[in-house]
Design a protein that fits this description.
With 607 residues, this protein is of the alpha/beta class. Bound molecules: adenosine monophosphate (AMP).
């Protein structure tokens, strides 16, 4: 399966006909909408605080709770047994006000960081919005992280409070708590009157709290902190501000085509940016009903939810769609999916096969879209009323200018007179770049100004992805421009994995790459050089993998591991992951003139 394939006769374009669409799309003419759009106008679609400030939670909850939609179902949680519980906009306003009151009562204030480590439970939604109401900053963590990634992020983000479950606290936080002096409060959502030592019972605090009115925040004030991974160094804390809600709302309108009566389901994990931008904020700003499945993915369960909850708009991910496709059409049989009018996907390359298979499974193609933690919201998308070219990410949103920037052999943007040189010939590959200025653009990496500045060159934000654009302005993903790994939609920094592996007593050095996987897109593979005195064995391999899983969690630890007696390195000692990958996949090795260790010594290298 290949993604990012150029338009071909193998995957002919899928035309769209307005007459075939059950609901008139929000955008019927792409070019006209782009021409008419401005971010200033988009801000008018929101209410704004009475004193001129902007607060995400006010746009998502308060303004609906104060109006006609107060009684409308905001969130519908589906429990393991399939039964549902709901919160209306009015109830959500009350609960989030209470949560803000809890934080206030604990002395947590403006700009201070509140972290979450949990699955999709009602408390999570209340915590995200309640934190924003209190003018504090919300930072979600992925619950499949092991103790080390959790510790590192809480430390980097100076987390003052953490909301989690008893089980996750015991497994991942209790043993690192001493290393986190700034973490004053741990709130358990399931303490049931008996919090662990050093933790608080959130339910009890909520009962006793005074609900707080949304605190006024400025548009440019920090609201969200999302950690993402780079090729080197520590994870990066991408800073987003309250004005991001303008982009969440506008992209919910254009790219997800949200209409007020929609029943919308976003399957993203709440630990990643999609879980916040499109799992919480965007749908609530549109006043729709959002389905939240409290369980993990299961093909039958998912088809049942789509059918029984009458989901109209579904936002999911390529890995999940590939799993459904693999499970087979039998699972879809017997489920009435006639309510479903729009299916979108994000996070990794979406194979043309899957786009087309959508027609068979859901009666419509899957609409791919592209964005990343730093962009805060969807930037490139396929729309209900625009022809789909299977394998393409679509075209830039109104208000978003995207281009392909030429790169030199070192991977740096080519500049001429201070301006980035654009690749203008159709199909020419370069780095996907965006013109800064959209409201959900990250405003910095926490405490890392230089790293932030390096993301911009010649008037563009450089995304780190390689892409091409066809003659009609459709963008096609080609690959990552760096060594970062995407596994089941999760971005994994090789450096973080290598560092953990090297803490194993037998490991001298490690190099980590992503290798293709038909379902997860990529899986993590490690190459390990052993310390003197250690011999490779199957038992040692399992021991090292087990060690990494315990520290990093199963989603991040390597699934595959090979021993090697010489990792390829540059003369300056940097591991050449690019070369490890080329050898693993039997691809051309490219320029090897900077290599320090002799090429080809590593076992398994193609002759
Ligand atoms: P994250 O910051 O974790 O959301 O990851 C963002 C990265 O995921 C992007 O820079 C891409 O490498 C990849 N990605 C996201 N959406 C797509 C897509 N539609 N097609 C291909 N890659 C994607």
């Amino acid at each position: 399966m290949t993604a990012g394939t150029a338009p071909s006769t193998r995957w002919p374009a899928i035309p769209k006909d307005l007459r075939g669409l059950a609901v008139r799309p929000n955008m019927v003419d792409y070019d006209a909408s782009r021409a008419a759009f401005s971010w200033d106008e988009a801000r008018h679609a929101l209410a704004g605080l009475p004193d001129g400030g902007v607060n995400i939670a006010y746009e998502a909850v308060d303004r609906h709770a104060a109006g006609e939609r107060a009684g409308h179902e905001a969130l519908r949680f589906i429990r393991a047994d399939g039964t549902a519980r709901s919160l209306s906009y009015a109830e959500l306003a009350e609960q989030t006000g209470r949560f803000a009151g809890v934080l206030h009562g604990l002395g947590i204030g403006r700009g201070e960081r509140v972290f979450s480590l949990m699955g999709r439970s009602p408390e999570l939604y209340v915590a995200v919005l309640g934190t924003l109401k209190n003018a504090s900053v919300f930072c979600p963590l992925f619950s499949a992280f092991g103790p080390e990634p959790v510790r590192q992020r809480l430390h980097l983000g100076s987390g003052r409070a953490l909301i989690t479950t008893r089980a996750l606290y015991r497994r991942k936080v209790a043993q690192i708590r001493d290393e986190l002096p700034e973490l004053e409060h741990v709130l358990l959502i399931d303490a049931e009157g008996l919090p662990d030592p050093g933790t608080l019972d959130l339910a009890e605090l909520m009962r006793d709290a005074q609900p707080l009115e949304t605190v006024s925040t400025r548009a440019e004030e920090m609201a969200l902190l999302h950690f993402t991974s780079g090729t080197t160094g520590t994870p990066k804390g991408a800073i987003h501000v309250h004005d991001a809600v303008t982009a969440h709302h506008a992209t919910g309108f254009f790219a997800l085509d949200l209409h007020p009566d929609d029943v919308y389901w976003c399957t993203a994990d709440p630990g990643w940016v999609t879980g916040t931008s499109y799992g919480v904020i965007a749908p609530l700003t549109h006043g729709v009903t959002t389905i939240v499945d409290e369980e993990e993915m299961d093909a039958d369960r998912w088809y049942r939810i789509l059918a029984e909850q009458h989901v109209t708009v579904w936002y999911t991910a390529p890995t999940a769609l590939r799993m459904l496709m693999k499970a087979g059409a039998d699972h879809a049989a017997g489920h009435d999916l006639s309510a479903l009018r729009f299916v979108a996907s994000v996070g990794e390359p979406l194979n043309p096969e899957v786009v087309v298979w959508g027609q068979e499974a859901f009666g419509q193609p899957v609409h791919d879209n592209w964005w990343q933690t730093e962009t805060g919201g969807i930037m490139i998308s396929n729309y209900p009323a625009m022809e789909i070219r299977p394998g393409s990410m679509g075209r830039p949103l109104p208000g978003v200018e995207a281009a392909i920037v030429a790169r030199d052999p070192d991977g740096k943007a080519v500049l001429r007179n201070g301006e980035a040189v654009l690749v203008t010939e159709p199909e020419g590959v370069g780095e996907l770049a965006l013109r800064p200025g959209w409201p959900s653009m990250f405003r910095g990496y926490l405490h890392e100004d230089e790293r932030y500045r390096r993301c911009f060159a010649g008037g563009w934000y450089l995304t780190g992805d390689l892409a091409k654009m066809d003659a009609d302005g459709y963008f096609w993903f080609v690959g990552r421009g760096d060594d970062v790994i995407k596994s089941s939609g999760h971005l994994i920094g090789p450096f973080e994995v290598e560092s953990s592996l090297m803490e194993h007593e037998a490991v001298a050095e490690a190099g980590v790459i992503g290798v293709p996987d038909p379902v997860a897109g990529e899986v993590v593979k490690a190459f390990v050089e052993l310390r003197t005195g250690w011999q490779p064995s199957e038992a040692l391999k399992l021991d090292i993998i087990g060690f990494a899983r315990k520290r990093l969690g199963p989603a991040v630890a390597p699934r595959l591991l090979d021993f090697t007696d010489a990792l390829p390195k540059t003369r300056s000692g940097k591991i050449l992951r690019r070369l490890l990958k080329a050898r693993e996949l039997g691809l051309p090795e490219g320029d090897t003139s900077t290599i320090e260790s002799p090429p080809g010594r590593y076992p398994g290298a193609p002759a």
